[in-house]
Amino acid sequence: MEWNTKYALGIPVVDTQHRQLFRLSNELDAELQAGIRSEEIDAMLIHIGEYAARHFAMEEKYMAESNYPGLAEQQATHQAFAKRFVEIYDEFKKKGLSRDIVDTLRRELTDWVREHVTGLDQRFGAYYRDRQSTAKTTDSL
Ligand SMILES: [Fe+2]
């Protein structure tokens, strides 16, 4: 699934990170399909895990600052992903790049990123944009 500007929340730093997460997910997906070596997948997973953690922190900061009512739900969702990510990564470290792991990575990991950005995060985008436009209207009064 390719990034599309319609997924933008209207917060440049968050949108840049979402775009990058799409790119990383697509790369991982393509490499898994092509049959990549485990060492390379290992490096990619570490990178994605760190990038996602940094991104969640940044996104939650914007949510907290704008008093977003869905913050707790987002935090819980981000934490659940982080936990699942560690489980999958540990399994990969134990068993290597088995058929199961490839399926799990493709199904759970890369799909999650795309579904989260195009789903739950969009609700925050709508809230944020709405708030921005209300602020502008109030300013001009
Ligand atoms: Fe999110």
Overview of the molecule:
The radius of gyration is 17 Å and the shape is elongated. The mean pLDDT is 93. The chain has a single domain (11-140), classed as Four Helix Bundle (Hemerythrin (Met), subunit A) (Up-down Bundle), CATH 1.20.120. The protein is an all-alpha fold and 141 residues long. Helix content is 83%, strand content 0%. The structure holds fe (ii) ion (FE2). The site of fe (ii) ion has 6 residues, from helix 3 and helix 5.
Question: TL;DR?
Answer:
It is built from 5 helices and no strands. With about 140 residues, it is mainly α.
How many separate domains make up the residues?
1
Unreliable stretches covering 5 or more consecutive residues: none
What is the CATH T-level topology? Answer: Four Helix Bundle (Hemerythrin (Met), subunit A)
- The CATH class turns out to be Mainly Alpha
Strand content: under 5%
- The sequence of SSEs as H and E is HHHHH
Question: So how many helices?
Answer: 5
Assign the CATH architecture. Answer: Up-down Bundle
The overall pLDDT average reads 93
Radius of gyration: 17 Å
What gross morphology would you assign? Answer: elongated
- What gap, in angstroms, lies between the N and C termini? 43 Å
**Would you count the extended β strands for me?**
0
How would you name the CATH homologous superfamily? Answer: Hemerythrin-like
Largest sheet: none
Helix content: over 70%
Counting helices, strands and paired strands, the structural category is: mainly alpha
The kinds of small molecule bound in this structure are: fe (ii) ion
